[in-house]
Amino acid sequence: MTKILFRLIDLQNYIVRFFTHYDVPEADAAIVADVLTSADLRGVDSHGIIRLDSYYGSQIRRGLIDVKSPITVVSETVASLALDGGTGLGHVVGYNAMLRCIEKARQSGVCMTTVRNSNHFGIAGYYAMMALPHDMIGISMTNAQPLVAPTYGKTALLGTNPIAVAVPAAENLPYVLDMATSIVPIGKITVYQKAGKSIPEGWGVDKEGQITTDPNEVLAGGALMALGGPDYLRGYKGYGLALLVDILTGVLSGAAFGGNVGGPSKGKVANVGHFFAAIRIDAFRPADEFKHDMDALMKQMKDAPKATGQDRIYIHGEKEFELAERNRAQGVPLMAEVVRQLQEAGQRLSIPFDLESVGQVEE
Predict the structure, then answer these.
(1) Comparing 187 with 196, which gets the higher pLDDT?
(2) Model's pTM, two decimal places?
């Protein structure tokens, strides 16, 4: 698969140009640009610039995202906050919600924040990692359009409903768990479809609920499988996690939940719900001691005996941090097909995607 390399700053500037074309305030457009390029930097290309026009631009043009709607407070205590996102861009809503969550945790030690009436906000890990510079543990969750069938079901009733947790360490890279509660996000199925490749068995089912390796079958009336896959591989655990995320992000916030969450195919306001939490470590113990023990725990994992043929045990987030560092230096890789689509959309919208490539790689 050919991937074309671009400078990070060029991609971010283009994304800002794209959104300001739709009257998104420049500061808000910069937030979206940072979230989307963070996904591509970290190798989560299913949630990056691939969605720029096909998802976000399309939703704005259809009036399903209000790019200037204010974020309002629904209710508030010293350690909690409930917000209404006003059908705004999910990235902007999520960024501001987590900022407020961190500020409250600075005062109260912990804070939990719910958001209703939002939209897709990109990678959940971005918001969890916002807590790291403050010596806090960050948690981020969101529900999404129904794409996942419950165990034994054939109809998509749950989103990929990701969970992200970020924890600081002293000398080591932070622990960053950022995972969908489905085996993969729907964007990964799209990536395989665009590349003309079969998906691994257990990623999705067709419209009859049967496991398929054809990405087209999953996208045409089928559904993703919950983390774990079929029941004999304990897929009900992933199903349970997806349902838990929907409870915290949808039911608790007053957002849509389950099969009621909107999406591109439904042509209605998404009313996505988010859940954020920030935990100030020194509310429990000195932060330096905690981070020292995090290093010790990570060392136990990394120094453990390796399986035959393996030479390294990774901590969650390590691969993504290392990949992001490489991509910052060498260029952010985009699939050639994605570049072609961006160029076509840019020409159609009079926002030319005329960025200069800095090279290409084969993956």
Answers:
(1) 196
(2) 0.94
